[in-house]
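Working notes for the structural subgroup meeting. M.R. asked for a predicted model of this chain before we commit to crystallization trials. I am recording the input and output together here so anyone reviewing the notebook later can reproduce the run.

Input as submitted:
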Amino acid sequence: MEEKAPKIHSLSFNFAMNVILKLSAVIFPLITFPYISRVLGPEGNGKITFVTSVVSYFAMFAQLGIPTYGIKACAECRDDREALSRTVQELLAINLVSMTVSYGLLGLCMALVPRFREEPALMAIQAISLLLNTVGMDWLYQAIEQYSYITLRNILFKLLALAGMFWLVQEPEDYVLYGAISLMGSYGSNLWNLFYARRFVRLRVRRKLQWKRHLRPVFSFFALSAATTVYLYMDSVMVGFLHGDAELGYYNAAVKVKTILVSLVTALGTVLLPRISHYLANGRRDKFETLVRQSLGIILLTTVPLVLYFIAAAEPVILFLAGEQYRDSVLPMQIIMVTVLLIGVSNLTGMQVLVPLNLEHYTVLSTVYGAVVNLALNALLIPRLRSAGAAIGTVAAEAAVLAAQLWYLRGRFPLWKGQVQLGKLMLAALAAWGAYAGVRQVFSGNLFLFLAVSALAFFGVYGAVLLILRETMLTGWLRKLGKR
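Returned structure, recorded in token form:
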């Protein structure tokens, strides 16, 4: 296949494509989660969550730090076809070795840990993700900013998985089949990635690969990935071990809603990393700083109302998405919603500031602090408070990560320059909360109508108050739109 130079679209186009991708990550769970929650029940969902969480640890070893480092390394040399091909070949070779080792470790752990052998078929299916992640090379496509391709192929495979789910998953016993369908929806397109990559790079095996030059940064990013994965999945693994699949199913319902919102909040950061790395590699520090500060303003303006609304509406959201049998998920969801804001900001300070500035070791340290806090609080709280204790541990961990990153950035990067008028933002949020409370008092319709009406009231009042108060960032956006 003929090798082509990648077409680099504007940042606004990439952001639009990534928003579509993230919206698909919201819409598809909104379609599938209510159905699967009711068909599989808390126990079936708990089984899926436990196995997925366990396999995620081995996926972490298989990927090392390549998913993040690969974006940075390839973005820096994307204008040089030969250098890009060489970099991709070297990273793929490292990834294949680490994947092989991870499969060996997984087999050993299944032989030694009885809990891991309770669902061997489901474990084997989920383990295929290690191979598909390796050959998929998503980091390459993000580095060369092929977001239209990423978005289209992702949506296509999600549609295929959606059709398969409604057609084949009908009983609680179909949880293994659902695991296979979910795997296809999430990773099926990765096989195509391997062949499509030949449009941009050469993948033939070279005799002399300079793979050693990547080891130090790869292991630095691996330390970041390891620390993140530990506290990202430790709560689910510990709830599953200590309280069984049903309790894990309740907790997973709360985490599912949080994950959907986080995917939206971090949509901008995904497209910023390759662009920011490219700016810094070419000495354009001013562009880097402008993008970062604009991102912080967007995060604060959008995330604060999201968090407040879903804390207020946790009960109707859970009952609508998962059903009455998941009522025990309401309190964990209200607690864990705070992490949406914390993750939104720490994703910016860590992945979009510290990493491009080659200060990723500080990101690793901050994540280690979060993992330690999470492990300690989980051990203390999960036995007593069950899934609510896991939620508290997660919030504390994310707060520790963000606090550490802000501390490391002091004096190095003036992150805050009054992008958002916080007083006006809080007044708008308070007014929006009052509008929601008013709707709840008078509305007696079904759950879907209530959520639709209350969301319109909440976010409508929020936006209107910001406009009335003439909040600077929002009015600035509107002026720019008016000039187009």
